[in-house]
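Severity: low
Component: inverse-folding endpoint
Summary: output formatting inconsistent between runs
Steps to reproduce: submit the following structure tokens with default settings.
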């Protein structure tokens, strides 16, 4: 990237909303260093020999299994030294083999470690860390609604135990 602030939004959309495998792989080749790392709640690619090819395969599985991906970028914050970017976004998508299921507005925080190339002066992504709230499990995982029930039960139990601790003076 020659202008990180301008191009980063385009890179994110090209990696998520683009369904063409050839241009998708070209995006990874163009904007990631040769040995990038990738950490996501559902996949990890360690930096090393061939990691860019493995990253393309991970993205390929993501693109194969998802349909109708829509990204809403809420904010992009770039460090003054342009070595780190934090992207706050929401993703909506359908899953290929579950036709009536749609994940809506999954909140994701992505942290990108950026490196400036000594060869051409362009900035590339050296590491990508994706995180989403544990609550997202109720949207993404099969039987995720059980998590919602568990959370409600844990909150109720915590309230009851907390009241007992408060009344007995233990807390």
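Observed output (run 2 of 3):
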């Amino acid at each position: 990237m020659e202008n990180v602030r301008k191009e980063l939004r385009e890179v994110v959309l090209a990696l998520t909303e683009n369904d063409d495998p050839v241009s998708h792989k070209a995006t990874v080749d163009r904007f990631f260093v040769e040995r990038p790392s990738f950490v996501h709640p559902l996949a990890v690619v360690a930096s090393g020999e061939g990691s860019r090819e493995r990253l393309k395969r991970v993205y390929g599985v993501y693109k194969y299994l998802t349909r109708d991906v829509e990204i809403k970028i809420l904010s992009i914050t770039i460090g003054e030294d342009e070595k780190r970017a934090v992207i706050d976004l929401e993703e909506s998508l359908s899953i290929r083999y579950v036709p009536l299921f749609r994940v809506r507005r999954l909140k994701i925080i992505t942290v990108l470690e950026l490196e400036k190339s000594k060869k051409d002066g362009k900035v590339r992504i050296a590491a990508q860390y994706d995180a989403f709230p544990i609550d997202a499990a109720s949207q993404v995982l099969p039987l995720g609604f059980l998590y919602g029930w568990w959370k409600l039960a844990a909150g109720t139990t915590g309230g009851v135990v907390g009241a007992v601790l408060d009344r007995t003076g233990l807390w």
